[in-house]
Amino acid sequence: MQEHHDPEGNPAMSGTVSPSSRTSPRTVLISGASIAGPALAHWLHRYGFAVTVVERAPELRTGGYKVDIRGAAVEVAERMGILADIQRASTDMRTGAYVNDDGKRIATLPAAIFGARVGRDDEIMRGDLARILFERTRADVEYVFGDSITSLTERADEHEHGHGHGSDGTGGVEVTFERGAPRRFDLVVGADGVHSNVRRLAFGPEEQFVRHLGAYISAFSLPNDLGLDREELYHAVPGRLSCVYSSAGDPAAKGLLTFRSPRLAYDHRQPDRQLALLDAAFKGVGVRPSEGWTQIPRLLEAARAADDFYFDGLQLIEMDRWSRGRVVLLGDAAHCASPASGQGTGMALVGAYVLAGELAVAGRGPEEAFDRYEKEMRGYVAVNHALAEKFAKDMTADTRRQIRFRHLMMRILPYMPWKNLVAKKIAEEVQRGANAITLRHRSRPAGTLRPPGVLRPPEARRTLPDMSDHRAHQDSPDARPAGAPAQHADDADAQAFRELLHGLRVWDVALPSFDPATAPAEPLPLFRQWLREAAEAGVPEPHTMTLATADEAGNPSVRTLMLHDADERGWHFASHRGSRKGRELAVRPRAALGFYWPAVGRQVRVSGPVTVAGPEESAADLHHRSTGALAAALVGRQSEVLGSVEELARASEAAWERARSEPAAPVPSWTLYVLRPEEVEFFQGDAQRRHVRLNYRYENGRWRQDLLWP
Description:
single chain, 710 residues, globular, disordered N terminus, Pyridoxine/pyridoxamine 5'-phosphate oxidase, EC 1.4.3.5, FAD/NAD-bd_sf, FAD_aromatic-hydroxylase
């Protein structure tokens, strides 16, 4: 059987069809060089297609506001090999705050809560992401800037290679341009945004697909006169919201102005009209301190001076079909969810991955691939459209009373014991949208993938060698050297296991921040605080811990058990003296404890000498616990060899009966241990891997604090 691999090198099902096949598209024209277009070009090139990207702008557009990469989009970015680039270019936002009319901060929260980001989610400037995608594809993809499509004419199969055909011999699309000469392609993709030119040419006027969400938004650059450092400031008046922020590595700031309005008449290519609408919406706001943020007039002036001014409605694109013949739409052109959703960029990356994967295995022409692409994406899009509708309403408040209430809730949230649960709830809806699709590993046609950076000449794209006979020979028993083992049946399971490990996420919740400058002089109060916060965040059994001990020869062992107390003497736990840990502590009375609370991304490590409490204190510890704990202690014989599960059942039944009838039953071997800390380390995880590690070490009668590199 011929073996195929996906672009990440994973085995896939056989029977896929190569782009050199007569019924699969070979040449693809993509309109739009923002995010969706170059992302699709990346995947199509890796699958062996010849790709051209045409862009109306004279050069790559590197402006725009910050965009989120969440959930499934993070996985796609990792499979593309650009996740590390995104992390390096992260906005690294630290806080978000609401300000009053004078600009005074009245409520501040971590930026991750504002952005509803968890785990590996990240945020990047749109222009930086566009640059990353362009640099990754420019050597392998033809880019044509400063031109635009003027007509699309699909040519039917004429059963001969000649004028009007795509390179697959089954027809093609004849394309004319504003400046360039006409060309023919097997497939045309509209990845040209909410005001898609390809959609207009292939499906009709934009108006029939747009649903206005009742608001408009503007974004632009401006001087960072407020001296912001990775911080965003918000100000609200009824029906309007303004924001200024700065991001890592950018000396300038960005401004955002949002206002509620029914649908307005204007041309999206006429900035003067858009600026007039913006002026009218914010007329009088901030002119005097009692009438709004005094920065608003400056923001309006900056919008007029900016060379990256953006203005558009918050609107959805809703279509019954995203394809017609050999023309298909991608990203905002197909299903814009508006900036209100915060998911547009992620949907573009995911859609590009899905569409390219389906085209790579299309056995009956592109229509079948388009159908599967839509089927896989529709549910994901629907969830995020619903998010956009909700958030578009929430972005602006109707009354000053609503604004004051919002400020009050934000101001008290950091001091509430349930603040982590609130943060988690805030993120839940967004995360549901970000993860509303299950990504499949896409199979690739045999022989189409080259190592990164190795360029294949254009003629090689058209005639790829068929390696199936060679591989079949290699896989045959006769081809194995004498004495070589046969392929084990569990190889697939091992590969699936590795894929599972690589796909598992960490810290898929909003993580709290930790400022070590606020830490107490001794570790015990901080430990108690962190354990309480872990419990409030919903961590199951936050008092469970790992205990590491070693035998006389220094061989380590580890197990999980429960913390019984933590006081000025140390950390308390208990067990039988005859258990393995009891025997090891008898010969080496030192140990280490580890606590891990994933919901808040925190760990605590404690190490030091261990002492044994007296019999009375040990008995009191046991009898303060549950009936089940007493029954387990009465069974005893911990770590000894067990003859059968039936033997355990009989002993347990007798122990339960005695524990119920004799709640003070003695267990002489039960021992309470106290670990006196010499070193305690507190670890606060960070989604950007900038973890905070605070180490306490007891030296010369006092605690010393040190920060450690992650």
